[in-house]
Amino acid sequence: MFRSDSYVNTRQQILFDLDDTLIHCNKYFGLILDEFYAIIQQWFAEYELTTTEIRQKQIEIDIASVHNVGFKSGNFPASLINTYRYFSQKCPRLINPQEEDQLMKLGLSVYDLEVEPYPRMIETLESLKSDGHKLYLYTGGETAIQQRKIDQMKLNMYFDERIYIREHKNTHALEQILQSGLFDRSSTWMIGNSLRTDVIPALTAGIASIHIQISNEWEYNIVELERSPDHILYTVSSIEEVPEMIDHKIEQENKQRTLN
Question: Which residue segment(s) compose the domain that 67 sits in?
Answer without folding.
Answer: 27-110
